């Protein structure tokens, strides 16, 4: 499902003394099946953009096309349910949305709201809990008895259970331990590839953006200031600093090595694996010469 | 939707009203509440109305914003107006349609009560809109201080009040966040039959309670860690200072009371 933002502007608390413009003329094109990262420092408008992606917020100016639904300021809420089923959002700290008696019921909540029969919702829940590495006995427990990491997984399962076509992630791994982080990010990537899920990742982590995304958009002061492939985005360090962002760790490392060796690698390496490969090849070449 | 609510919110500003001592404002509002009940005729209610508008002007809060924020109360005012209009049966009949009879006295009472309600709500809102919650509690604590002699836990009461005021916006934001998260999961609180809406409230309330309790616990721990042990021997960073203008504003109330007593029937 394609999502296109056209000149989207948004102001919180419009017409009150608390009015605050959060977005200015944002244009962004998220083609079906792509993995789009949105990065930016705190307060840059990332989360506001994200809430537009399934019409929780309607732009005060401009429009958003989500699949074949056009969302504008004066749009009635009626047509938006369809959108919400197709676009699943994993909010920051999604464990705060758990409420039901058992984990199973909580995961089934989303799909059942959209009219999925109970049996089907249940089988989805069981399948997803396995996928997310939740032990079987957890399903009958209260979500409030779980550990933080498990609660996070349950909440994510609750969103995935709706079978969305687009998955929007807002800092999905904030506050998790490094291993849980990697597991969950890898899972999202696998779903993205296997099911062809269009994925939008809002993150502070340059490393995650570099590793997983096809395209990256940089938000700064409510504007989308830069958009391109990870290679293009991480080419220019000064420009990133202007937006109070940094290079991913491995690109930083690459730059340092290049400086010390007085040589340049052919490409910017976005993951540690790729960097190791390139460096090994470089060293082999050196030895042969 | 929730961002339009103005109860308990503070709008930073530098008007005459903003600069008043919080104690003066608090006494002012309490006395005003009493004085409002003196009014009982067209002239006296007119005076109250004008007085209230002067105060609004002096606070430099936009009228549109004030009225917009008080919408829920306006509905209540209209409701009480209608009740008086329909159920008071005194004076001559001024309007008759089928079984509905509207009496002169009913109309009069309805309008009076509405004005009374309106000025009270406006003035108390202005108090909270122009005074930081912290200075309101400081003022309350200062004013209640004499009651300590009778073992009233003044400091604790003030603290309770400041904590609850402080957490109104936080809980509002939290509600907004959870509401959005559940809406993204297809729960719909804004449409459907009453029963459906009631059911949709559960997924909102439970997480809200859970997080409120968690917050309370964290706050208690944080306070203890920073050595809080009640009001005994606690010094203050902000000092309340009584200025001439505070005396002046209270004197205007005396003038208002005298005018009202004079024109009262």
From TrEMBL, chain A:
The keyword Transport appears for this protein: yes
MF GO annotations: ATP binding; ATP hydrolysis activity; ATPase-coupled transmembrane transporter activity; cobalt ion transmembrane transporter activity
Domain ABC transporter positions: 3-246
Keyword annotations of the record: ATP-binding, Cell membrane, Membrane, Nucleotide-binding, Translocase, Transport
The protein's enzyme class: translocase
Family of the protein in this entry: Belongs to the ABC transporter superfamily. Energy-coupling factor EcfA family.
Name by which UniProt lists this protein: Energy-coupling factor transporter ATP-binding protein EcfA2
Protein's organism: Psychrobacillus insolitus
Automatic annotation (TrEMBL), chain B:
Domain of life of the native organism: Bacteria
Membrane topology qualifier: Multi-pass membrane protein
Keywords: Cell membrane, Membrane, Transmembrane, Transmembrane helix, Transport
Compartment(s): Cell membrane
Gene Ontology terms: cellular component: plasma membrane
Keyword check for Transcription: no
Pfam (any one): CbiQ
GO-annotated molecular function: transmembrane transporter activity
Membrane spanning stretches: 26-56, 63-87, 107-129, 242-263
Purpose: Transmembrane (T) component of an energy-coupling factor (ECF) ABC-transporter complex. Unlike classic ABC transporters this ECF transporter provides the energy necessary to transport a number of different substrates.
Family classification: Belongs to the energy-coupling factor EcfT family.
Complex formation: Forms a stable energy-coupling factor (ECF) transporter complex composed of 2 membrane-embedded substrate-binding proteins (S component), 2 ATP-binding proteins (A component) and 2 transmembrane proteins (T component).
Identification of the protein by name: Energy-coupling factor transporter transmembrane protein EcfT
Organism: Psychrobacillus insolitus
Lineage: Bacteria, Bacillati, Bacillota, Bacilli, Bacillales
């Amino acid at each position: 499902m394609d999502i296109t933002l056209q000149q989207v502007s948004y102001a919180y608390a419009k017409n009150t003394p608390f009015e605050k413009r959060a977005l200015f003329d944002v244009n962004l094109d998220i083609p079906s099946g792509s993995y789009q990262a949105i990065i930016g420092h705190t307060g840059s408008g990332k989360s506001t953009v994200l809430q537009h992606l399934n019409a929780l917020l309607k732009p005060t100016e401009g429009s958003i096309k989500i699949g074949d639904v056009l969302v504008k300021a004066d749009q009635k809420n009626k047509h938006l349910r369809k959108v919400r089923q197709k676009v699943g959002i994993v909010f920051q700290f999604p464990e705060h949305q758990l409420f039901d008696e058992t984990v199973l019921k909580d995961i089934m909540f989303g799909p059942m709201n959209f009219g999925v029969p109970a049996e089907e919702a249940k089988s989805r829940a069981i399948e997803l809990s396995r996928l997310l590495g939740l032990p079987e006995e957890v399903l009958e427990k209260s979500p409030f008895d779980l550990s933080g990491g498990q609660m996070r997984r349950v909440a994510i399962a609750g969103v995935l259970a709706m079978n969305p076509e687009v998955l929007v992630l807002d800092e999905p791994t904030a506050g998790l331990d490094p291993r849980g982080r990697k597991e969950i990010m890898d899972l999202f990537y696998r779903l993205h590839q296997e099911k062809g899920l269009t994925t939008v990742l809002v993150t502070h982590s340059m490393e995650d953006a570099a590793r997983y995304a096809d395209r990256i958009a940089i938000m700064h002061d409510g504007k989308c200031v830069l958009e391109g492939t990870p290679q293009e985005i991480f080419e220019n360090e000064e420009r990133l600093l202007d937006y109070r962002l940094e290079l991913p760790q491995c690109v930083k490392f690459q730059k340092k090595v290049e400086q010390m060796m007085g040589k340049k690698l052919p490409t910017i390496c976005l993951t540690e694996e790729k960097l190791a490969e390139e460096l090994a090849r470089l060293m082999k070449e050196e030895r042969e010469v | 939707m929730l961002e339009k609510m103005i109860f308990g919110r503070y709008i930073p500003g530098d008007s005459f009203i903003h600069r008043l001592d919080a104690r003066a404002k608090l006494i002012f509002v309490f006395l005003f509440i009493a004085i409002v009940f003196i009014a009982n005729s067209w002239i006296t209610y007119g005076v109250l109305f004008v007085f209230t508008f002067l105060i609004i002007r002096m606070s430099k809060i936009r009228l549109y914003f004030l009225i917009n924020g008080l919408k829920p109360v306006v509905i209540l005012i209209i409701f009480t107006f209608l009740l008086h209009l329909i159920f008071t049966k005194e004076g001559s009949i001024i309007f008759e349609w089928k079984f509905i009879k509207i009496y002169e006295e009913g109309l009069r009472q309805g309008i009076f009560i509405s004005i009374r309600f309106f000025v009270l709500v406006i003035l108390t809102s202005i108090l909270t809109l122009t005074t930081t919650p912290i200075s309101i509690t400081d003022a309350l604590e200062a004013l209640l201080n004499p009651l300590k002699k009778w073992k009233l836990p003044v400091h604790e009461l003030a603290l309770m009040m400041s904590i609850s005021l402080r957490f109104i916006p936080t809980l509002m934001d939290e509600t907004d966040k959870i509401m959005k998260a559940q809406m993204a999961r297809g729960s719909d609180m804004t449409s459907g039959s009453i029963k459906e809406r009631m059911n949709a409230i559960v997924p909102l309330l439970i997480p809200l309670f859970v997080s409120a309790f968690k917050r309370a616990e964290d706050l208690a721990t944080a306070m203890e860690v920073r050595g809080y042990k009640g009001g005994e021997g606690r010094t203050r960073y902000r000092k309340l200072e009584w200025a001439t203008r505070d005396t002046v504003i209270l004197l205007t109330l005396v003038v208002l009371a005298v005018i009202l007593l004079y024109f009262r029937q």
